[in-house]
Amino acid sequence: MKEEFLAYAWAYRLYDGQKLCTTDGEIIQIIDPGRLNRNSGPDFENAKIKIGDAIWAGQVEIHVNASDWYAHGHETDAAYQNVILHVVFKADAKIYIGAQEIPTLELAQFLKLGLYDQFESWLKSKTWIPCQNQIQSVDSLIWTSWKDRLMAERLEVKSEPVLALLSQLNGDWKMVFYHLLTENFGFKVNKTAMSIFASQIPWKTVLRKHEDPLLIEALFFGQAGWLETENIDEYHSQLSEAYTWIKKKHDLSPLPKSIWQTGKSRPGNFPCIRIAQLSTLLGHHRDLQKNLSKPCSLEKATDLLTVKAGAYWEEHYDFGKKGKKNHAILGASSLQNLLINTLPTYWYAHASYHGNEAQIADIIEFLSRCKAEENQITRHWSVLGCSADNALDSQSMIHLYNEYCSHKRCLHCQIGLHLMKQR
Q1: Residue 340 in contact with residue 366, Cβ under 8 Å?
Q2: Is residue 375 part of a domain?
C-alpha cells in the first residue's frame, strides 16, 4: 500500500462512507475531507468531520501504518497539534497528542474492492499509456471537461517563464514579445541558442532600422557569429561590411558560432534560414508586436507571420552552400508552430498578468480555430480512438501525455479518477 493512494482515496471518497467508524467504534461522517496540503504539515487542511455526536474542524493526517506518526516524529511537531483524525491503512498503534488520543480511521476495511489493484496495474503497465485498454470507455463529456482544464494548465505552465522574462526586462512587454518570437524561431533544435541570441540583440536599434533589410540581416547574422569568418561570397561580404559598421557604432560583441546546432538540422531548419526569415519578418513589420499584442483572428495572425527570406536564401541554406529546394519561405508546419506555441503563450501571460478573463477566452477560441498538430504523440492518441479536431485538442493531449501519462500520474488525472469510480 502507498500513502499517495490512501490520500487519493480519502480526497475523492473512494470508500464506503455509510459504515465509517473509528477504531474505538465511534461513527464517522465526512462532511468535508479537506484540502490537500502541498506544503509541510498535515496532509489535509480545513476538514470538517462528525465523530460521534461532535463536529470537528481541522487537519487530517494520512499514513500507511498508524505507527508512522511516531516514525516521522509528529508527536513533537507543533504543526500536528490540530489533527482531528488520523486516517491509516493499518491501525497498529494508538496515537496521542499529549494525553489526548487522536481518533483513528482504519480505511482498509472500507475501501472499495479492486481500487488498489487497479492503481498497481497502472504503475506496472508497459503500454504507451497506463489505461490504454480502458480509455475507449471514457465518456466524451469527461474528455471535453478534462481537455479544457489541461489546456488551461498548459497555458499557465508555459506562461511562467514569460513572466520571469518580463521581470528581467523591467516590465517591457514589447521586448518580451520579440524575445519570445526569436526564441521560438529556433524551434526544437536551436531554441536555446535563439534565446541566447535574443538577449544579445539591441532591439531598439532593430526597430529603428526596419526600413533597411540589409542592415537588420547584417546585425542579426553578425550578432549570431556567422560573419566572423573570411568572406565566403559577395552577399556574405556585403553583410560583413555592414555589420562591421554597426558593431563599432553600437559597441556590440558577436556570439560564438559554436552555440548553433547544425548537425541534426535539415536545410529548411538550418540556423541561417531561420535567422534570415526572422530578420525579414521584422524588417517588413515595424509594428509587429503592436499588431499581435492581443488575441486576433487566425487569418490576421497567419498573414502577419507568413514570411519569405531574401533572394539569396532561395538557393542557399548556409553561406556559400546551395540546397536542392527553396527554403526561403517559412513552411506550413513552422508557421503552425508559431501560431500555436508563441502567440497564445504571450497572450496568456499578458492577459493573466493583467487579470483579463475576456482575453483568455479569446485565446481558447483562437486555438480552437487552429489546425491540430500532427506528431508522434497525437498519432498515438488517434490510434487509441482519441482524435484531435483542432489545436486546443492536440495541445491538451500533448500536455496530458507529457505531464501525466508518461509519469504515470494516474491519481492526478480526471480520466484515472473516472475509471476508478467506475469500479
Answers
A1: no
A2: yes
Q: For the chain, which residues score pLDDT lower than 70?
A: 209-211, 423
> Strand, helix or coil at 255?
coil
How many other C-beta atoms are found inside a 10 Å radius of the C-beta of residue 256?
Answer: 10
CA–CA dist 144, 127 (Å, integer): 24
Burial class (CB in 10 A: 0-12, 13-18, 19+), 240: buried
Same domain, yes or no: 61 and 194: no
Does a structural domain hold residue 159?
yes
Same domain, 15 and 80: yes
Strand partners, 48: 32, 57
Tell me if 305 sits within 8 A of 334, measured CB to CB.
no
Last residue of a domain, one of 112, 140, 160: 112
Q: Which candidate, 72, 12, 8, 1, places its Cα nearest to that of 41?
A: 72
Cα 259 to Cα 78, 198, 236: the distances in Å are 52, 13, 20
Residue type, 332: A
Total structural domains in the chain?
Answer: 3
Residues 403 and 412 sit within 8 Å (Cβ to Cβ): no
Same domain, yes or no: 86 and 150: no
197, part of any domain: yes
**Confidence (pLDDT) at 422:** 77
Query: What is the spatial distance between Cα 243 and Cα 219, in angstroms, rounded to a whole number?
Result: 6
- Looking at residue 212, its pLDDT comes to 79
22, 29 Cβ separation under 8 angstroms: no
3-state secondary structure of 129: coil
Q: Is residue 336 part of a domain?
A: no
Half-sphere exposure of 349 (CA within 13 A, CB side): 24
Are 85 and 227 in a shared domain? no
Q: Specify the pLDDT at position 229.
A: 86
| Domain enclosing residue 294, as ranges | 171-330
**pLDDT of 60:** 95
pLDDT of residue 211: 66
